[in-house]
Amino acid sequence: MKKTLLVISALGLTFVSAQEIGYGKSVEATMQQRGNFSNETTNEDCSTVVINDTDEQSGVFIIGNNGQAAAVDIPIESNQKITINSIHVSLSSREVPTFVNFVFYKNTVSPPPAEEGDPGNQNIPGDVLFEVNDATIDSFEVIGYEEMHEMYVRNIKLNLAEPIVLDGSTSDGRIWFGVQSDANAWATTVHWETGEGVIAESVALHSNNSGWYQLLGQEGLYEFTAECEFMGTFENEILAKVDIYPNPAQDYFEYKNLNSLKIISTEIYDAAGNLVKTVKGESKIQIANLKTGVYFVKSKTSSNVTLSNKLIKK
User: Fold this and answer.
1) Is residue 16, in this structure, part of any structural domain at all?
2) CB count, 10 Å around CB of 172?
3) What's the rounded Cα separation, in Å, for the pair 1 and 33?
């Protein structure tokens, strides 16, 4: 990977503001593209790198666990699963980050415009699907330096405790991927003109005043090593009929329309992504001991299919 000198010219004095963005020009691209997500048949390599393709970079701020939220969108078909085996992200800070966590969100569409000129109708992160808080930093490479704020831009390789599986049936056309770290910013590429090397569409930022909003034409620099699996049409039609009931539920829920599918294990996660219950070999799950709230249910079947459902506990 080539060394790159970045001049970060518009970071401003307040890093926590979602409105404050901007890196300046870079001398060279920081990454080389290895491939895009495949739209072919089952078990394809879909490793991908979002590169700097315009000799121009910017950045979105992320400060620890409680700072600004930033996310990029990953395209995914409804019958597709993406298994991520390793992740690299490019982050800016003075000291080497001590942790890098990830948050994955469902896609949602913002309300229609309230008034003329309001962008509205944007794809933005919705409910949290799950969080990954057990990744460890394997190594990093300095790819840039900003003199004004004395910050290094580092491409950081993360070790995952286990592969991350994205299920296209849980979201609408894309899943959002966010970074939490004690770094200051997530390096991005601007692709206003060419669009070359663009994997998805945009960066989304979260402001306490306006919630989530998109920065079109900008993408966070990251790298996935991943595999894709596409379910057949027949299998997908079967899974589309599988559901849990009652929902909302008070004491229990169970699956309906399983047909030949057999549940071998079920995991229930709370809204924060914490595993709260595990059940083996049951299709009727007791939940009387769970608190009132929203949960996410993932059940594995004997045919190696994962069922994902949202559960409301009364």
Assistant:
1) no
2) 14
3) 12
User: Quick one: pLDDT at residue 232?
Assistant: 62
Give pTM, 2 decimals.
Answer: 0.62
Q: Which CATH number belongs to the domain containing residue 249 in this structure?
A: 2.60.40.3080
| Separation CA 138–CA 158 (nearest Å) | 5
Q: Which residue has the higher pLDDT, 248 or 23?
A: 248
Rounded CA-CA distance 256/283 in Å is 9
| Tokens at 261, concatenated | 């599918």
Single-letter amino acid, residue 297: V
Domain of residue 224, residue span: 44-230
SS (H, E, C) 242-274: CEEECCCECCEEEEECCCCCCEEEEEEEECCCC
Q: Spell out a b/e string for 15-30, using b for 16 or more CB atoms within 10 Å of the CB, else e.
A: beebebbbbbebeebb
Give the C-alpha distances (Å, rounded to integers) separating 88 from 54, 82, 113, 278: 20, 16, 36, 31
Question: What are the pLDDT digits (tens) for 241-272?
Answer: 678 889 999 999 998 877 767 788 899 988 87
Confidence of residue 193 (pLDDT cuts 50, 70, 90): low
